[in-house]
Design a protein that fits this description.
Distance between the termini: 89 Å
Helix content: 40-55%
Length: about 150
């Protein structure tokens, strides 16, 4: 048998291909889409719940540090001093009673923004520690909601 004859035989042999048909791929994608649609609402509810839990924990930690500051200084930090006074000593005569740092570092909210401080408070509290949420604008719903020491237990 010549080489040409062997090549001719190889070319006539049907080749078998393995793989997925377009229909099979489309069915798998449809099933995955249905699974995602069923799971997504629960997942997003859990994300909002985790954000709220983290904010509540951070605010309680900052409030606790503010109480220790008040014990040493007989008052809360002024609005101009802000929360930074919990980490670094203020300048001038105010530093004489400072017994900190009261926090190693100031925590950031889940959206990587610093927590805000108000003295005096406007929601029935002496002082307020709060975040404006994901949109970083006052007001909103869901992840955009404002969270502060006046409503973290809601």
């Amino acid at each position: 048998m010549s080489i040409f004859r062997m090549e001719e035989i190889k070319m006539k042999t049907p080749s078998t291909q393995s793989g997925f048909t377009l229909i099979e791929v489309m069915i798998v994608i449809a099933i995955m889409g249905l699974m995602i649609a069923a799971i997504a609402p629960d997942l997003f509810r859990n994300v909002e719940k985790a954000e709220k839990t983290r904010v509540a924990s951070d605010i309680r930690q900052i409030e606790s540090a503010l109480k220790f500051y008040r014990l040493d200084n007989y008052r809360y930090p002024t609005q101009s001093q802000g929360l930074e006074v919990l980490v670094t000593a203020p300048s001038g005569s105010a530093s004489e009673k400072w017994n900190g740092p009261y926090l190693e570092q100031l925590p950031k909210d889940p959206w990587q923004e610093p927590y805000r401080y108000a003295n005096p408070g406007t929601h029935g509290k002496n002082i307020e520690v709060f975040t404006f949420g994901l949109d970083n604008v006052s007001g909103g719903e869901g992840s955009d909601r404002d969270w502060g020491n006046w409503n973290i237990n809601d």
